[in-house]
Every structure is written in C-alpha cells, then in structure tokens.
Amino acid sequence: MIQSNARPTWGKKTVAMIPSEAHPIWGKLVKGEIDYKFRLTSAGMLFFSLRLDYKKNPSSLNEFVRMARTFFVKYQSILVDDMQKLFN
Length: 88
What we know:
By secondary structure, the protein is mostly helical.
C-alpha cells in the first residue's frame, strides 16, 4: 500500500548522487546565479549567509562550496526533494 504522504527516497547511495565540490552547480548556488527556494528553511538560510560571505570574500569560494556540500551530505534525508530538483 502506498501512502499519499510518502516521500521519495534515493536509497543508500544518496551521497554518491550529491555532486562533488568540483561541480559548477555549487558555485552557482553560492554566488546566487541560481535563485532556488529551498523547502528546508535552514538550507535557504545557509545559502543566504554563504552569498553574503562570498560577496565579502570571493577568494573563499571553495570553502563556501565545501560548507554547502557538507550540509547536503549531513541532511540528505530531509533534502531529498531539493536534491532531485537541483541535481537531476
């Protein structure tokens, strides 16, 4: 029986489906080139903060990308919908 509120899952290989830090999408998200409305408020707050930090210190882009990807890896189970939209 399928529940109507069932969330899609990516299984055990979710981390493998999150792009590496070298993928251009991370830089675009941090720089604000992709304006995306995250379902999870904390994700939106993170990227808002990273954009501000990037504007102050563009040379630290790699650090900001690492922070963003680490957040996605840590909270992948509740970011499934956003990951499917952003990374597919």
